[in-house]
TrEMBL record:
Species whose genome carries this gene: Lepraria finkii
Domain GST N-terminal: 3-85
Protein name stated in the entry: Glutathione S-transferase
Limits of the GST C-terminal domain: 91-218
Top-level taxon of origin: Eukaryota
PROSITE patterns with a match to the protein in the record: GST_CTER (PS50405), GST_NTER (PS50404)
Length: 218
């Protein structure tokens, strides 16, 4: 690979940073272009790339592909650049289990955690029943992961895969999504807590979370 991938991102949103973790883990060269919200993300230039007007999206000048939806981008990066299967398995059933967990992240974690954030932080009215519903969904998703991790360090097989990594950037935001009233005591989810600590200790994850902090305070 000769040219850097362009990652279209937003400083605060967790989804582009999820892709950054995979880029860092695989040592892929990339440049981040931060878009303002709403002007950049909803503007004509970006919606020509992503008609959904949301980040992330990537341009890969090495293959000519432009892609959006973080899960699809992650699968592309692993297919194209993870030639030693560092973050994946090529064997069955493991490769399908990885996809299963990525789908769960994309459909079960991302949207529900996103709605929790919306109703707690941005909605024009305070709707306690909506705040409670999504706080309970965070607990439900956390319980699913905690149960799946019983006796295991990672979701699939015995190594960290892109499935595990896909849960990090929303996972670290939980305290901002629940508030004190629905605060989650992670001691009640010991497998989940140890897994998150394991993932957060990885150099690539640390770097991306630090980059996000810097971007947000810059
Ligand atoms: N399913 C999409 C969700 C993308 C998404 O919602 N991104 C947020 C930033 S984290 C965004 O662009 N929000 C702008 C908006 O809500 O209009 C993905 O995973 O790529």
């Amino acid at each position: 690979m000769s040219q850097p991938i362009i990652l279209y991102s937003h400083k605060a949103g967790p989804n582009p940073w999820k892709v950054a973790i995979i880029l860092e883990e695989l040592g892929i060269k990339y440049e981040t272009k931060f878009l303002e919200f709403p002007a950049g993300v909803k503007g004509k230039e970006f919606t020509a790339k992503n008609p959904n007007g949301r980040v992330p999206a990537i341009d890969d000048p090495n293959t000519g592909i432009t892609l959006w939806e973080s899960g699809a981008i992650i699968e592309y990066l692993v297919d194209r650049y993870d030639t030693s299967a560092k973050l994946t398995y090529t064997s069955s059933p493991e490769k399908y289990y990885i996809k299963q967990w990525l789908m769960f992240q994309m459909s079960g974690q991302g949207p529900y955690f996103g709605q929790a954030s919306w109703f707690k932080n941005y909605h024009s009215e305070k709707l306690p029943s909506a705040i409670e519903r999504y706080a309970n969904e965070i607990k439900r998703v956390t319980t699913v992961l905690n149960n799946a991790l019983e006796g295991k360090e990672y979701l699939v097989g015995d190594k960290c895969t892109y499935a595990d990594l896909s849960f990090v950037t929303w996972g670290v935001m939980v305290p901002l999504l629940t508030g004190e009233q629905h605060e989650i005591n992670f001691d009640e989810y010991p497998n989940y807590k140890a897994w998150m600590e394991r993932l957060n200790a990885r150099p690539a994850v640390k770097k991306v979370l630090e980059d996000k902090q810097k971007a947000m305070s810059g």
